[in-house]
Amino acid sequence: MSRRWRGLTWDHPRGYAALQAAANQTGLIDWHTHSLEGFESAPIAQLCEQYDLIVLDHPHLGEALAQGCLQPLDQILPDEALRSIERNSIGLTYASYHMAGQQWALPLDAATQVMAARPDLLTRAGHSVPAQWQDVLALSRQTKQVALSLAGPHAFLTLLSMCAALDRGLTLDDGKRWHKPEALQQACEWLVELAALSPVSVRDANPIALLHHMTTHDDVLLCPLVYGYVNYTRVAAGAALTFHNAPRVASNAPGSILGGTGIAISQRCQIDAPLVEHLLWLLGENAQTHFIPQHAGQPSHLSSWRDPAVNADSSHFYLATFDTLNAASLRPRHDGFIALQSCASAFLREGLFNGASPATLADGLNTLCAPHSTIAERNFCD
């Protein structure tokens, strides 16, 4: 049977292996891949002109809706099927793809920024996995082996996760709010101190490269905020990692910014019953708990995250980070946020690598990220 649809996902096994294995069984979809950087920043309208199915993350929704390039799933999938997926999806993974009163993607994969550790190096240094931000800072001062994830949009996302730990009541998803000055100042102080002591070897590494480096080198024993990849709990060569809840502030819930992926349908796609059946199977409990984890994927189904066998096969990756994902915050999703995210990260990296003070970083971010700051955004990005 010839494949009927073209799909686009990202080029890590977590992004493509399960989708390709499932497509090989059905012959329905020809999956193509692009880089993590393409996944994070490529113009969604251009991709939708070329592909029927797009794997994306929730900050792209504003841009996609402005361009009118996706089909609302409420008009394609049965209402009860959507309600079932919503009930059984962890945290805000389903809600992250709901915008303007409609559902635009299905939460295929769940992830958020969590803590990654080399347990052997921690033990050798006489330390345990830190639970609080003050413990992370102390470990960094003592070992100089605590790394930050700063490449691409991740400098800004790390800052937002720190702010989320400090300012738990605030939501940014509508793009009309910004963090309290004291929370932003504190987060910038942490960022400056940790960046100054972070190993230079991973300064330019995206999350995949950073985690791979941790498995094959001994100069990083902890990253307090990096998007979790279950794949690095078992590695063919090197040392496996363990993943843990993001650091807390006092008794607050862990602060983290939701990632993961959703599968969306472009306007060019000619949908039929076999495609609908395939998509609903991918989101069903059986595929999410068995097929997807067995093919290098990272499910979004609540039952999968709690499943004893799935956890036993991953050094308890899912249960060890469950609280963080369940409490993770959404990013703004308005049209233009992807550009703002890139711009804010570039601003932070330049400041961190050139000795800017926490106050300078906080002032710049306030100017850049205040609601409706289109002039400020243009000035920073040009």
Characterization of the model:
By secondary structure, this protein is of the alpha+beta class. Helices cover 47% and strands 11% of the residues. It has helices at 13-26, 36-41, 44-50, 61-67, 79-87, 119-124, 133-143, 154-166, 181-197, 207-216, 273-282, 285-294, 302-306, 308-312, 317-327, 337-353, 358-369, 374-381; strands spanning 5-10, 29-34, 53-56, 98-99, 102-103, 106-109, 113-117, 222-227, 242-244, 261-265. It has a five-stranded mixed β-sheet, sandwiched between helices. A hairpin with a 2-residue loop joins strand 4 (98-99) and strand 5 (102-103). The longest helix has 17 residues, at 181-197.
What brief labels describe this structure?
alpha+beta; disordered C terminus; about 10% strand; globular; single chain; about 375 residues; 18 helices; 3-stranded antiparallel sheet
Question: How do you describe this structure in short?
Answer:
Helix 9 crosses helix 17. It contains 18 helices and ten strands.
Overall SS class: alpha+beta
Task: Give the overall silhouette.
Answer: globular
Number of helices in the DSSP assignment: 18
Order of helices and strands: EHEHHEHHEEEEHHHHHEEEHHHHHHHH
Q: Approximately how much helix is present in the residues? A: 40-55%
The proportion of strand residues reads 5-15%
Overall pLDDT, averaged? 92
- Profile the largest sheet: 5 strands, mixed
How are the strands of the largest sheet arranged? 2-1-3-10-6
**Cα radius of gyration in angstroms:** 20 Å
